[in-house]
Write a structure and sequence with these properties.
293 residues, alpha+beta, Ribosomal Protein S5, domain 2, Alpha-Beta Plaits, 10 strands
Length: 293
């Protein structure tokens, strides 16, 4: 995609996330669910540019711009993040922002949350001094606080309690999305049964095999309700699990994107290309987890 003209700061990378596992451990009286989840950022990223302006303005470009057209008038998390920093600082600044949308929307990859977190950090550094970013992030959404952190992190509570994770080994990631947006509230409404127990993440896996073994003892509690909401998710997981070079297949977040772990980004890219050939209607991506920044 062409970059904006002169006068813009950027590009700022807003990296997607995947949930290597996600346990739903309870529900608060206000309806928010309690989670136990391992967030990892990946090298797929939206890109953002900005410059000072007289009024806030957002232009969305990129392969997934159309999915956000309804939000561009003011409901986008990017603009809400700018407004939250402005309110917290008592500032009068405004910004013209260009968002290159490379992450699918409503896909379990935290694209909107990553965009918001990137803007919070950027505008806090530019205008905000010592404002409480964690509080502003949580007010924008439960996935935004983990997206303030670029390295792997354990999220608990409703997503606001963050615990750093010891080093993870490098690994490749293949993503597959069937092109069906999935509503997170709808998935949670379909969840039934008992809540899971939290499983503390102990130690540091020495290699990919150890990482996969630890993840195999965990799961994504939202997979089954997401299948009910969008049955094609089951077919995506079957397609991933049929690949012999894939070490683990799982859904991310509340879906519909599913991911597979490989020994490196080259294998992930090859698998993404092979799946795209067999399923041309599906979006695929092959890349790497961001384990060190």
């Amino acid at each position: 995609m062409p970059e904006p003209g002169s006068g813009y700061a950027g590009p700022i990378a807003a990296r997607a996330k995947i949930n290597l596992y996600l346990h739903v451990t309870g529900r608060r009286d206000d309806g928010y669910h309690l989670l136990d989840s391992l967030f990892v950022r990946i090298d797929l990223a939206d890109r953002i540019w900005w410059r000072p302006a007289h009024t806030d303005r957002l232009q969305v470009t990129g392969p997934f711009a159309a999915a956000l057209s309804a939000d561009a008038a003011g409901d986008n998390l990017v603009l809400k993040a700018v407004e939250s920093v402005r309110c917290a600082t008592g500032g009068t600044f405004c910004a013209e922002i260009v968002l290159e949308k490379n992450i699918p929307a409503a896909a379990g990859l935290g694209g909107g949350s990553a965009d918001a977190a990137a803007m919070l950090k950027t505008f806090a550094a530019e205008f905000g001094g010592s404002i409480e970013l964690d509080r502003l992030a949580l007010a924008l959404g439960a996935d935004v606080p983990p997206c303030l952190v670029e390295t792997p992190v354990l999220a608990s509570g409703i997503g606001e309690i963050l615990t750093p994770v010891p080093a993870l080994p490098d690994f490749g990631v293949v993503l597959v999305n069937p092109g069906v947006p999935v509503s997170t509230p709808a998935v949670f409404r379909r969840r039934t049964g008992r809540f899971s127990e939290a499983m503390p993440w102990d130690g540091s896996p020495r290699d990919i095999a150890s990482l996969v073994a630890a993840l195999a003892q965990r799961r994504n509690d939202l997979e089954e309700p997401a299948w009910l909401e969008a049955p094609v998710i089951g077919r995506v997981l079957e397609a991933l699990e049929a690949e012999p070079d894939l070490l683990l297949a799982r859904m991310s977040g509340s879906g519909a994107t599913c991911f597979g772990i490989t020994e490196g980004p080259e294998k992930a890219q090859a698998l993404a290309a092979a799946i795209a050939q067999r399923h041309p209607d599906w979006w695929t991506y092959g890349g790497a987890a961001v384990t060190v920044v």
